[in-house]
Amino acid sequence: AQTVTQSQPEMSVQEAETVTLSCTYDTSESDYYLFWYKQPPSRQMILVIRQEAYKQQNATENRFSVNFQKAAKSFSLKISDSQLGDAAMYFCAYVRSNFGNEKLTFGTGTRLTIIP
Amino acid sequence: DGGITQSPKYLFRKEGQNVTLSCEQNLNHDAMYWYRQDPGQGLRLIYYSQIVNDFQKGDIAEGYSVSREKKESFPLTVTSAQKNPTAFYLCASSMTGLSNQPQHFGDGTRLSIL
Description:
The structure holds two protein chains of two kinds.
Chain A: E1 3-5, E2 10-14, E3 19-21, E4 24-26, E5 32-39, E6 46-52, E7 60-61, E8 64-69, E9 74-79, E10 88-96, E11 105-106, E12 110-115
Parallel strand pairs in A: 2-12
Antiparallel strand pairs in A: 1-4, 3-9, 5-6, 5-10, 7-8, 8-9, 10-11, 10-12
Chain B: E1 4-7, E2 10-13, E3 19-25, E4 31-37, E5 43-51, E6 54-57, E7 64-66, E8 76-78, E9 87-94, E10 104-105, E11 109-113
Parallel strand pairs in B: 2-11
Antiparallel strand pairs in B: 1-3, 3-8, 4-5, 4-9, 5-6, 7-8, 9-10, 9-11
């Protein structure tokens, strides 16, 4: 079974600084997708960024970027120029590529605090 | 605006009572999901449905039931058989059940025991 591990239960960063959240996963598959979701205090889960395993180029969305290391099974999220609105729980998730009936496996989350 | 609506936001259950959590989406998505979130844990899949009138058990289906009579609706019933129902419940949908489609989430329902 696939597992996703987020080893940092809590992180904090000064506003405007850069922070990196760690995620590792275990799989025997070669084709899969990885996601980072953000859950602010309002509790709604919001997709931050997505990475396809077959793409070597790291995904980027504005201030959010990933460092995808396929051989090491690592998928870290870098947030640049941290803003107060970035404070949230961040979940890493994995799903193998399929033609149906696959499900997301989530990590346990990292709580990010932004220090003004 | 298109989105997923969960209701109620807070729900209380008495011992031995069944309760139903509502999830409605107007995104015209085929696939819908129910997750349970407990403190210190990631989301765990309860049930999912990829098409109307069809659904499959997730990792923790015991004590729960669902129906999918309409494309836009996927209600979750927490039965009296679920002995530890206190949790935050999230409903999600995706355009199809294919894994490359991101899931969109509702605002959740917090269920507590009276």
